Amino acid sequence: MIVCVAVVGHQSFTEADDALKLHHIVHCSLDVVDERVNNPKKSGPTLNETFLGLLYPTENYKVYGYLTNTKVKFILVTTDLDVRDVDVRNFFRRFHAAYVDAVSNPFHVPGKKITSRTFAERVSNIVKSFGLSST
């Protein structure tokens, strides 16, 4: 189950009671993202890879990262400790598409919080469908 999705620098989406704890987890994951971006030889993904993979596990959560070509960072925090990379990649692909549609809106002010109801509904649907296989 996804407990938090963050667009770093812009906003986060969580309905959990421990939102402050999740914000701390997202903030801590940024060090790992910076390390992977600045030292690509030491870590797995190449510079062309947008999916950063598992950033770090905690006792109760797994934290995944994604970096767009415009350097916007997406962070996913899940309680599912047996999540497959394919599901996470698919989630980020769909989330990125929704994000691009939202920021491409001519009424959106760049750098400000996304207030689109359509975007919120798309994110909610993407989160609800996370991990559901088509087989």
UniProtKB/TrEMBL annotation:
Homology family: Belongs to the TRAPP small subunits family. Sedlin subfamily.
Please give an example of a GO cellular component term from this record.
cytoplasm
Entry protein name: Trafficking protein particle complex subunit 2-like protein
Provide one Gene Ontology biological process annotation: endoplasmic reticulum to Golgi vesicle-mediated transport
Listed Pfam families? Sedlin_N
The lineage is: Eukaryota, Viridiplantae, Streptophyta, Embryophyta, Tracheophyta
